[in-house]
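C-alpha cells in:
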C-alpha cells in the first residue's frame, strides 16, 4: 500500500532545502544592506543652498544648517517652507536608496519569490 502525503524518506526534497538556504542567504544579505543604508547620510538643500538638511538611512534628521541671509524674522513662513522642502527631499533620497538596494537584491522581482 502506498503512503499518502509527505515526502519519500521523510526528509525535505533537495529543491525545498535549496530554496530554504537561498531564503536564509537573502535574509542575511537584506540585514547587511539595511545596516549599510542606516549608516548612510543624505543631504538635501533648498533655497539655493540657504537651507541644508541631513538625514540618515534610518530617516532621522541629524543636521539642519541655515545661512544667515535666510533668517528673516519678518518672514518665518519662508524659512519653515525651505526647511520642510529640504527635509522632504533628503527623506525622498533615503527612500530611493532603500528601494534601489531592495531592487538589486531581489533582481527586480518586486520583493517576491519566484514561485
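Residues out:
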Amino acid at each position: 500500500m502506498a503512503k499518502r502525503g509527505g515526502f519519500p524518506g521523510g526528509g525535505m526534497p533537495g529543491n525545498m532545502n535549496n530554496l530554504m538556504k537561498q531564503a536564509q542567504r537573502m535574509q542575511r544579505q537584506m540585514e547587511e544592506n539595511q545596516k549599510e543604508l542606516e549608516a548612510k547620510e543624505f543631504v538635501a538643500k533648498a533655497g539655493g543652498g540657504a537651507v541644508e538638511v541631513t538625514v540618515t538611512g534610518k530617516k532621522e534628521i541629524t543636521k539642519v544648517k541655515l545661512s544667515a541671509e535666510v533668517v528673516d524674522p519678518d518672514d518665518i513662513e519662508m524659512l519653515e517652507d525651505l526647511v520642510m522642502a529640504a527635509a522632504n527631499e533628503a527623506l525622498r533620497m533615503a527612500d530611493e536608496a532603500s528601494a534601489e538596494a531592495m531592487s538589486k537584491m531581489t533582481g527586480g522581482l518586486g520583493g517576491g519569490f519566484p514561485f
